[in-house]
Amino acid sequence: MPELLDAAAVQPADRPAFRLRVPTEEDAYAWHRAFDDPEVMEFHGGRPAELSAYHEFTARQRRHDAERGFCLWTLLDGDGEVVGFTGAQPWPHAWGPVGAIEIGWRLARPAWGRGYATAAARETLERVRAAGVDHVVAMVDVRNARSVAVTRRLGMALEETLPVPGRDGASCHRFGLRL
């Protein structure tokens, strides 16, 4: 059974209860369902990914956790339902902050506005710090006000704005945080 990280004990009472776990093979299906929403995918290519992409993605996260002690974990609400993911991984692209550790999150629309992203990202920062990481970045589409707000609540500072290759007119803010 995958390791569950129960953050409820460290969260203030006004924050949601949640758990993080290393993604399972079954989580590929859960993520596919949770993110099969144009609004969720608005800043991630605009359309839902194929199921096969989530199988590869969850497998890559299991490898990251085994090798590094952190990954993009499956985020479960207090009832144990998958509501998305949050965590950290090496930046996966040939552009942008190559070699950096990226913190990220993506939630199903019903979980928006409930504090999950910020609370789970704070737990992520503690986990990556414990793994010896001293700096993280967050790459956020400049139009994504909700995620920009999460970076600010985490104390991240805007480092630069970068164009997104292959997406005309799209750009991302790079936020950084020294741990």
Automatic annotation (TrEMBL):
Gene3D superfamilies: 3.40.630.30. Residues 18-179 form the N-acetyltransferase domain. InterPro entries: Acyl_CoA_acyltransferase, GNAT_dom, N-acetyltransferase. It comes from the Bacteria. The keyword Hydrolase does not apply. Keywords: Transferase. This is Acetyltransferase. It comes from Streptomyces kanasensis. The lineage of its organism: Bacteria, Bacillati, Actinomycetota, Actinomycetes, Kitasatosporales.
